[in-house]
Design goal:
Strand content: 15-25%
Low-confidence stretches: 272-278
Helix content: 10-25%
Order of helices and strands: HEEEEEEEHEHEEEHEEEHH
Radius of gyration: 22 Å
Number of helices: 6
Mean pLDDT: 91
Shape: globular
Length: 306
């Protein structure tokens, strides 16, 4: 329920309106969950929320993300959940922290990343590629647009792995394809979604309606296509495929375990959560895709740094 109103029959828009309000005001929510006999009731204070898109492997005791996955080998881990206006800035701050800790290898996790702003994806790719093409667009009746990397601000000198899966799409595919084509990173995981179309929104009826028109498609630095067209076959070039020997597809059970594991790691350590994370399983979940990425990076680091 939301402020005493049963939410079971609410439409999504009505529930959103009931939850939203002026910053500083409060709303009481009652949440039912599997394993709890009684609903969990919490009074929440509304605030302006900044959604994090740059996440680490775990939170520290101060609730800041810890981006160092393996302190001994100095392998970093950064998860980008989407490409927003602040993603490039937050990613650079995380990389600066890792650089100060003498980073030796990096895992960039783009699994489940649905995309976001093209400008943000270009900024992120430019952080790891010193020169050359990042991405281009081509269409039948529109001029070609190209974006190239620039050396200033590039993070170099360490091996990289990019994790992707079948839910990595759009802007995340642009970044993964760029780093793969420039041989800046090894791609581990599953073939990506294949969403590489450029769409323009044309306003109609003085703003009362709009037409979304597909005008062109994104091209990898190699010139290959990213978009999976309706008649595309599995053997066609679309999306981003893992490098040879690093294709690890998760089944439904592994995917559910990965979600649960991520939820436990994402919960804040301080304060009181509205919904507590599920209890840890008897045996900790092993992320096979991440383990493969770490195995590769460990092999690239010749000696453990002092």
């Amino acid at each position: 329920s939301i402020d005493g109103r049963p939410a079971e029959q609410m439409k999504l828009d009505d529930a959103v309106k009931a939850l939203k309000g002026e910053p500083g005001s409060s709303v009481t929510v009652s949440v039912a969950r599997l394993g709890s006999r009684e609903p969990i009731v919490r009074k929440l204070t509304r605030e302006m929320v900044h959604v994090e898109t740059v996440l680490g492997e775990r939170r520290g005791t101060d609730d800041r993300w810890d981006f160092m996955l393996d302190p001994q080998k100095r392998i970093g881990y950064i998860r980008v959940s989407s490409f927003s206006r602040d993603t490039a800035r937050d990613l650079r701050q995380a990389l600066d922290r890792l650089t100060e800790a003498k980073l030796q290898g990096l895992v960039l996790d783009l699994r489940f990343n649905p995309g976001g702003l093209l400008s943000s994806a270009i900024e992120v790719a430019d952080m790891f590629v010193a020169d050359g093409r990042i991405v281009s667009t081509q269409g039948r009746n529109v001029p070609e647009h190209v974006w190239d990397a620039e050396r200033p601000g590039t993070y170099e000198g360490f091996p990289m792995v990019v994790l992707v899966n079948r839910f990595s799409a759009s802007a995340s595919e642009i970044v993964a394809a760029c780093l793969q084509d420039h041989k800046r990173a090894v791609i581990v995981g599953e073939r990506t979604w294949g969403k590489g179309s450029v769409q323009n929104v044309i306003e109609l009826e003085e703003g009362k309606s709009a037409l979304k028109l597909t005008t062109s498609s994104y091209q990898r630095p190699s010139g290959k296509n990213i978009h999976r067209f309706p008649d595309a076959k599995d053997t066609d070039d679309w999306g981003v495929r893992p490098d040879e020997g690093y294709d690890l597809r998760l089944n439904d059970r592994d995917m559910a375990n990965l979600f649960d594991d991520r939820q436990r790691r994402d919960v804040l350590n301080t304060g009181e959560s509205v919904i507590e994370a599920p209890a840890s399983p008897a045996r900790p979940y092993v992320d096979r895709q991440l383990a493969k990425a770490v195995e590769y990076l460990a092999g690239q680091i010749k000696e453990s740094p002092e």
